[in-house]
Amino acid sequence: MKTPDNLSLLLIALCLTPPAVVAELNITAFTPNGTLTWTNSDTNANYRVEAATSLAGPWVPMTNLSLIQGPNQQVSVQVPTPLVQPVWLYRVVWTDAPSAQPLGTWVYQGFDPASALVVTGLVSITASNPISGTCVFQSATSDLYPKHPVGTAFFNGQLERPNKLIIPFPGTTFMRDNVSLSGQMVRDEFWGYWSYTEYWVNIAGPGGSFVMSGRFSARRQN
Question: Burial code of 196-210, b = ≥16 C-beta within 10 A, e = fewer?
Fold first, then answer.
């Protein structure tokens, strides 16, 4: 689908999920004229559309947006065309979503930066103040060391908002540090982004670092 040049990249943060997981909030379309459409099983919900020029933000609420409730629990909004930015990122926030209920075991899928499935496993949350538990992941490909971390314990997670979780856990092998999951949890769905900072040492000069990130989705185990 072709979009205008100044809408060359669209990011719907906290809303993209693979076909195997049916999220409460699911983006269904974005047209070249700027119409953004999503569905939600909850028909009595409030939303906020935010925009930024980078994933790190800052995220700015869009104003004067008219939300239209259509058939099949569908909502549409006309997104203003950015005037000067070559790349503009969007996300939809469900502002009055039910509070997260994190305790339990979550069936997890992790995707690399190109959105290919690279890790599957379980996230077991055993305490909620602070959020703690274990992540047990395994590679979903022939690569035994995927870009996604493969598992560890965590003990210092927190609710940034009533339905947004941040779960940091210790670095794993290959000098990975600051590994974290950050996403939205609504009823039996948990989805968002994993990330970590990777460092390298250059014996001929200064080293460096970069952030590796991709999306994840999880569903509460029955």
Answer: bbbeeeeeeeeeeee
Question: Cis bond leading into 80, ω under 30°?
Answer: no
Backbone angles phi, psi at 152, to 5 degrees: -175, 180
- Is the domain of 87 the same as that of 125? no
**pLDDT tens-digit series, residues 177-220:** 567 888 888 888 898 888 877 766 777 767 777 677 888 999 99
Decide if 81 contacts 5 (C-beta within 8 A): no
- Determine the structural domain holding residue 210 and report its residue range: 104-220
Is 139 found in the same domain as 71?
no
pTM above 0.90, yes or no: no
Structure-derived torsion over alpha carbons of residues 39, 43, 44, 47, reported in degrees to the nearest 10: 10
CATH number reported for the structural domain that contains residue 192 in this entry: 2.40.128.120
DSSP string, 68-127: EEETTTEEEEEPPPPSS-S--EEEEEETTPPPP---EEEEEEEE-TTS-EEEEEEEEEEE
Kindly report the number of other CB atoms within 10 A of residue 159's CB atom: 17
